[in-house]
Amino acid sequence: MELKNTIWIEKYRPQKFSDIKGQEKIVERVEALVKLKNIPHMLFSGPAGVGKSTISLVIAKELYGEAWHQNFLELNGSDDRGIETIRGIIKDYARVKPMGDFPFKIILLDEADALTKDAQHALRRTMETYAQTTRFLLSCNFSSKIIDPILSRCTVFRFKPLEDKNIKEIIKNIEKTEKITVAEDAVKALINISEGDCRKLENTLQSCAAIDNNITEDLVYSLISAARPKEVKEILEIALKGDFLTAREKLLDTMLKYGLSGLDIIKQMQKEIWSLSIEDNKKIYLIDKCGDIEFRIVEGSDEFVQLESFLANVISVNK
């Protein structure tokens, strides 16, 4: 393929508001503010890969045109999370007037929820002092980690995971542009794996396309080292029938086949519990047990012992 080494995340990054998928209400509100040429400080909150950083870049390009690089600074809160960054790089950039005939510059602070509390308090003061020359766009996964004084100074936009129809639209666009073929079952697998994360979708799809132009469900699951949902469900169904040894053997074989950790398999089991043919109260009981098992594994317990314990709980719900 001609574009095997191309980073699809950048290649398919939206260049204008109409290109952004799955966030129509937010796009409509932001676009209206941009048309006024006077945006407020903004906070974009939501899961990864849904367009938070992208919409910030589109805002800059719509406001400044070809000169957007000169009036736009992008920093990552995970890399530059201390108070020195706020007092140094950000403050120095904010105090300088914008280039050209523009009323303000833009600072994008990605992963702002990774900033320390001291850094956030320093940022609040900087936002206040240089409001005439600089607008701040903050992006985070969890707005609860942002201090209230910053939240009160920003217009908050809450992003949602992309819906299945948006994921399908993106896949069809890539399929057409890159001249690859994505089977229907592979599309379902990509939707299941991406969980509304466009960045994860494009990375997975590009990795598959580097191996074969005809992308199948088998290729997708083998590449990302995840068990098929039907295999995980089969383990649970065997356990529900009371056959502990067979369920245990099938579980270990599946983990070895795909190279899964205990955390990987327990998360997949949690998803498949809802599709089991048992009463709702039993599903709730097993979901609760999934939480206990995940916590114990994270805390350092032996994952195989914990997974056997979970299988024992699955068997006990039908007795």
Structure description:
The chain is of the alpha/beta class and 319 residues long. It folds into three domains: 23-158, P-loop containing nucleotide triphosphate hydrolases (Rossmann fold), CATH 3.40.50.300; 164-224, Helicase, Ruva Protein, domain 3 (Orthogonal Bundle), CATH 1.10.8.60; 229-316, Zinc Finger, Delta Prime, domain 3 (Up-down Bundle). The protein is 56% helix and 9% strand. Helix 2 (24-35) packs parallel to helix 3 (52-64), helix 11 packs antiparallel against helix 12 and helix 14 packs antiparallel against helix 15 (303-316). The longest helix has 19 residues, at 280-298. The chain is globular.
CATH class of the largest domain: Alpha Beta
* Span of the ends, CA to CA: 56 Å
Question: What is the H level of CATH, i.e. the homologous superfamily of the largest domain?
Answer: P-loop containing nucleotide triphosphate hydrolases
Count of beta strands? 7
Shape: globular
Query: What would the average pLDDT be, to the nearest integer?
Result: 88
H/E element sequence: HHEHEHEHEHEHEHHEHHHHHH
What kind of assembly state do the chains in view correspond to? single chain
> What CATH architecture of the largest domain do you see?
3-Layer(aba) Sandwich
Structural class: alpha/beta
Strand proportion, as a percent range, falls in: 5-15%
User: How many independent structural domains?
Assistant: 3
The neighbouring-strand order within the major sheet is 2-3-4-1-5
Unreliable stretches covering 5 or more consecutive residues: none
**Any idea what the radius of gyration is?**
24 Å
Mind summarizing the main beta sheet? 5 strands, parallel
Residues in helices, as a percent range: 55-70%
CATH fold name of the largest domain, please? Answer: Rossmann fold
